[in-house]
Specification:
Blueprint (H helix, E strand, L loop, with lengths): L7 E10 L2 E11 L4 E5 L6 H8 L7 E6 L2 E2 L5 H7 E4 L11 H6 L14 H13 L15 H14 L4 E5 L7 H13 L3 E5 L3 H7 L2 E6 L2 E6 L1 H4 L2 H8 L1 E7 L6 E7 L2 H11 L1
Parallel strand pairs: 3-8, 3-9, 6-7, 7-8
Antiparallel strand pairs: 1-2, 1-4, 4-5, 9-10, 11-12
Protein name: Putative ABC transporter ATP-binding protein
Keywords: ATP-binding, Nucleotide-binding, Translocase, Transport
Pfam family, one: ABC_tran
């Protein structure tokens, strides 16, 4: 694939939905080739922010630029060549085969009325191979498990061959092995990746920068060790955080404990 990583900047982004302000003046910066994580409680505005960064909806204020160009001023085709967006939940026609669905990612590069040739097929097969789904290329989409569908959605995003890849909860429905494999793949890509994640420890392990979002407001942005601190996590997520060092790797891991002592006691009693 020939995608070239592109820098992403957002300044003062405001998004309103049905007269309600969901994202409130968020700034973000991703160097070309960086992996940026967006974390926050449910309902904090993560998905809305990602869609705004991808240019998939109007913004009430601010600016988003990819490779120096304003995303909302781009044509739909130019934007699709620059940015690939993989939503948290996607619908796909049940009668499509896996390779047919992934081929949809090549649409921005196709000439009118053209039929995919050897190059297009090679791009699709490579994307399926990268997510471990090449053996399912002739399977029907409606026969796949949730985790398998999730990997096929990512393959379609990879096949789009854009310089920026925006992923909304890419580890949803994946078991821990496939979560780690997917994040290893994300780190290996020559693209700029911005992704929403629920798992703070995974975000700390894989991301170059992390944005902490709460109630649509950026509470912190920077290196994971500077952002995912005990005070920030306690304030935003309402849980106590501790760092434990893996003696084999030397890497610090985040360990969480509920502030609710009654909840902790009930868990302890149920385990007896």
């Amino acid at each position: 694939m020939s995608a070239r990583a592109l820098a992403v900047t957002a300044s003062g982004v405001v998004v309103r939905i049905d007269r309600r302000t969901v994202v409130k003046g968020v700034d973000i910066a991703a160097d070309a080739g960086a992996v940026v994580g967006v974390v926050g409680p449910n309902g904090s505005g993560k998905s809305t922010l990602l869609r705004a960064l991808a240019g998939l909806g109007p913004i009430a204020d601010g600016d988003v630029r990819v490779g120096g160009e304003s995303v909302h001023a781009m044509s739909a085709r130019s934007r699709a060549k620059a940015i690939s967006f993989v939503a948290q939940e996607e619908q796909s026609p049940a009668d499509l085969l896996v390779h047919e669905y992934v081929t949809l990612g090549r649409t921005p590069h196709a000439k009118p009325w053209s039929v995919g040739g050897k190059h297009e097929n090679a791009v699709v097969d490579r994307a399926l191979g990268e997510v471990g789904m090449i053996e399912h290329r002739l399977s029907s989409m409606d026969t796949l498990s949730g985790g398998e569908r999730r990997r096929v959605f990512l393959a379609r995003g990879l096949a789009q061959d854009a310089g920026v890849l925006i992923l909304d909860e890419p580890t949803n429905h994946l078991d821990i092995r496939h979560q780690l494999e997917l994040l290893d793949l994300v780190r290996s890509l020559d693209r700029t990746v911005i992704m929403a994640l629920h798992d703070l420890d995974l975000a700390a392990a894989v991301c170059d920068r992390v944005l902490v979002l709460a109630d649509g407001v950026a509470r912190a942005f920077g290196h994971p060790s500077d952002v995912l601190t005990t005070s920030v996590v306690a304030t935003v997520f309402g849980v106590e955080t501790f760092e434990l060092v893996n003696p084999a790797t030397g890497r610090s891991h985040l360990v969480f404990e509920s502030r609710n002592s009654q909840l902790q006691q009930s868990f302890s009693e149920s385990a007896l």
